[in-house]
Amino acid sequence: MMSRMSSCMPNWSVSPHPRDGLRRGKRAIRHMRIVLWLIALLGSFASALPAAAQSKVNIEQNFADSLTALPKEELAVAGGFYVPAYSSVAMSQGKLRVDFSVTLSVHNASETQPLVVKRIAYFDTAGKQVESYLKAPVALRPLATVSIFIPTDDVRGGTGANFLVDWAATGEIAEPVVEALMVGGVANAHYAFISQGRPTRTATKK
């Protein structure tokens, strides 16, 4: 009896239409295209960010071992350096641009006294400040060094980039050594050269 009643019950199951699978496939393809477009958009946005915004230089943390406490005595001697740098260089009669990484190094040449670095600022070809790397003055231990690294893909400085470095000390001190090292290449050719800092003023007592 039960079997006969079951056989008389209507069949409520609906077999899928062949077009339903096609529609689901098209929707999946559209969703995938949207996801890929968003990924590409985010990637291009990230690459458009300045390199310095992606990885901020922190001298106090990166060179903690090179630093010491600021002197309590009056800073009686002061000086400054201008350092030419070349984030990009024109080659092949100006038809080719080669980008370089830049490493600025500030060396305390004194064996006995700390060197106070008051400012490290980076400027582009037009003389506009690109970055300032110190929130407050820092003191280098005798014979210690701090450096600023600008990666190859940070071309904000251009062909006429430069640094200004201001320093001070409590008394007569060996003049610090400030220089920029550029490293880069094109194809199989690699280049490296150094730009020496030039004093902007003679170190004198105040």
Structure description:
The chain has 206 residues and is of the alpha+beta class. It has a domain at 62-199: Immunoglobulin-like (Sandwich), CATH 2.60.40. The chain has helices at residues 2-8, 18-48, 51-54, 59-62, and strands spanning 67-68, 77-84, 88-91, 96-107, 115-123, 129-132, 138-140, 145-150, 162-169, 177-186, 189-196, 198-205. Strands 1, 2, 5, 6, 7, 9 and 12 form a 7-stranded antiparallel beta sheet that branches. Strands 3, 4, 8, 10 and 11 form a 5-stranded antiparallel beta sheet that branches.
Structural class: alpha+beta
Q: How many β-strand runs?
A: 12
Give the distance, in angstroms, between the N- and C-terminal Cα atoms: 115 Å
Helix content: 10-25%
Based on the structure given, which CATH architecture of the domain at 62-199 is correct?
Sandwich
Range of strand content:
35-45%
Would you list the SSEs in sequence order as H and E?
A: HHHHEEEEEEEEEEEE
Globally, the shape reads elongated
Are there runs of 5+ residues with pLDDT below 50, and where? 1-10, 39-55
The CATH class of the domain at 62-199 is Mainly Beta
Q: What's the rounded overall pLDDT mean? A: 82
* Biggest β-sheet description: 7 strands, antiparallel
Q: Please tell me how large the radius of gyration is.
A: 31 Å
The count of helical stretches stands at 4
CATH topology annotation of the domain at 62-199: Immunoglobulin-like
